[in-house]
Amino acid sequence: MISAIILNYFCANDTLSAVLSLLPDLDNDGFLEIHVVDNSVSCDQATVLGKSLDQRVKLILNRENTGFGRACNQVVQRTDSDYVLLLNPDAKLLPGALVLLHQFLEANPDVGAVGPIVYWDETRTFLLPPNIYPYRWLDLMRDKSRLVRNVYSRLWRWKAVRYWQRKQPIEQKTLSGGHVLLRRSAIEHAGGLFDPGFFMYFEDTDLFSRLRKAGYKLFMFPAAVAIHQFGGTAKDRMDWKQRLFAESARLFAQKYRYWQPIECLIGTLSKYMPSAPQTFNGTDLGELSAAPSFEIPEDLCNGWLAEWSLQADFSPAAGWRSKGRNLKVSCSLWDHIPDGDHFLRIGQPGVFGRTVNQYRWRTNHQNGGQIS
Predict the structure, then answer these.
(1) How far apart are alpha carbons 257 and 264 in whole angstroms?
(2) Tell me: the pLDDT tens digits for 40-94?
(3) CA–CA gap between residue 208 and residue 112 (Å, rounded)
(4) What Å distances lie between residue 70 and 75, 84, 189, CA to CA?
(5) Which residue among 23, 56, 80, 237 is the one 20 to 30 A from 166 at the CA level?
(6) What is residue 358's three-state secondary structure?
(7) Domains observed in the chain
(8) Cα–Cα distance for residue pair 163/153, rounded to 1 Å
């Protein structure tokens, strides 16, 4: 049996969509149970979920916002299934994905967790990048050194393209807690699901670190496919999310400082080094309020790679490999991306492909206007 956990926080419609993607597997008796935990502490959210959820789905209404990790722990403590599925409310598994992930864990007892390949948008154009272990010393050096930043950006692209092109399962150092199937016995050997000290963010990185330390492998299985509209939830609370992210990053760095002694040294040295601001060399499109389109250079018409990032050095970046003369951002993707700076580069699709064009814009969903 698999216990699926979906956490709702003021996104009932998204949660219902995530649940809907799992309902076909719920029809397989004894295979799946679905738990929705609501942290909204909202009568409106509770009413929508209570009226709209399939009667077979188990709903937990918390009296306070306990955070992502603690809410998921509630379900694990109440169940005894062999496997645990974590699925974000803004994510969904495509048909057959859960069966494939389950079969992979059944066939590989040394694997503690497996995740699908993940698209950013409903039209299945942009693939989300692999999760990378957050070495704090590397982040510090990227802030201080343009050379380190440029090298890291190239390494990121090399790893991401290999990941996107993969046809067979590929071992990973860490995964995303937004769409992952976990072996319960591995969770128990690693000390439990989530450390309750993490309110939100980095609790999954901590879990995967503990799983690897306990001797279990982590894999991405490309035959299983998911969609995760990353960045679409709580867009109006970006400051709050950024603050939580920073707090969890500090907690994670403190928890693993003894395992990364180089971080202490570089962290100390970085205090005396001047910052090297990120620079952008490309076309600035200004402020956009509608989805843009881009003309592909003629020499790339037979195959190109577009990378979309919130960072000027494109680490990380979502990727879209395609052909033709035009790249049009889908409205479904545009509608859920957060306001702020966005970067796009277009180039050759290979691991070491040449970048041809780069663009920057600032998204503003508040203004009307038509830009294409």
Answers:
(1) 7
(2) 999 999 999 999 999 999 999 999 999 999 999 999 999 999 999 999 999 999 9
(3) 9
(4) 9, 15, 19
(5) 23
(6) strand
(7) 2-236 (3.90.550.10), 283-363 (2.60.40.10)
(8) 15
Q: For residues 95 and 25, what is the distance between their CA atoms, to the nearest angstrom?
A: 9
**Given the structure tokens 């545009």, which residue do they identify?**
334
How many residues in total does the chain contain?
A: 372
Residues of 306-342 as b/e, b for ≥16 C-beta within 10 angstroms?
Answer: bbbbebbbbbbbbbbeeeeeebebeeebbebbbeeeb
* β-pairing verdict for 32-38 and 58-61: parallel
> Which amino acid does the sequence have at 355?
T
Q: What is the DSSP string of 5-71?
A: EEEESS-HHHHHHHHHHHHHHHTSTTTEEEEEEE-S--HHHHHHHHHHS-TTSEEEE-SS---HHHH
Identity of the amino acid at 265: L
Residue type, position 315, single letter: S
**What are residue 285's phi and psi, to 5 degrees?**
-90, -5
This prediction's pTM: 0.91
Going by C-alpha positions, the residue among 311, 310, 308, 334 that lies closest to residue 321 is 308
- The residue written with tokens 């003309």 in the block is 295
Closest CA to 287 of 209, 368, 212: 368
Q: Which residues are paired to 361 by β-bridges?
A: 342
**Amino acid occupying residue 41:** V
Distance CA 51, CA 48 (A): 5
Going by C-alpha positions, the residue among 186, 181, 253 that lies closest to residue 214 is 186
What is the percent of the chain with per-residue pLDDT over 70, rounded to a whole number? Answer: 88
Give the H or E element holding residue 367. Answer: none
For 199-224, the pLDDT digits (tens) are: 889 999 999 999 999 999 999 999 99
User: Residue 71, Cβ neighbours under 10 Å: how many?
Assistant: 23
Please enumerate in sequence order all residues whose Cβ is within 8 A of that of 43, keeping only pairs 6 or more positions apart, or say none.
none
- Cα dihedral: 358, 360, 363, 369 (round 10): -80
Q: Which residue has the tokens 């250079």?
A: 297
Which residues, 6 or more positions from 246, have their beta carbon under 8 angstroms from its beta carbon? none
